[in-house]
Design brief:
alpha+beta, Gyrase A, domain 2, 4 strands, 4-alpha-hydroxytetrahydrobiopterin dehydratase activity, Pterin_deHydtase, EC 4.2.1.96, lyase
Length: 76
């Protein structure tokens, strides 16, 4: 579930192992590139954390971020 905090949408995703986490990141990277909207994220072993906000709008959450979050949820 995405939460909004500090002008960012945030969610942590837990996978069975590093390979599954990395495969998810590759799918998200493809979506981000097509949308020209790139997340801030981290990966430690099986955990991927993602933060979304729109830099061009002053680092706030916009509809662009909400759409990206929905697209990310679809690749789970």
């Amino acid at each position: 579930m995405w939460t909004e905090e500090n002008n960012k949408l945030y969610q942590a995703f837990i996978f069975k192992d590093f390979d599954a986490a990395f495969a998810f990141m590759m799918r998200v990277a493809s979506i981000a590139q097509k949308a020209n909207h790139h997340p801030t994220w981290t990966n430690t072993y099986n955990k991927v954390e993602i933060w979304l906000n729109t830099h061009d709008a002053g680092d706030i959450v916009t509809d662009k971020d909400r759409e990206m979050a929905k697209a990310i949820d679809c690749v789970l």
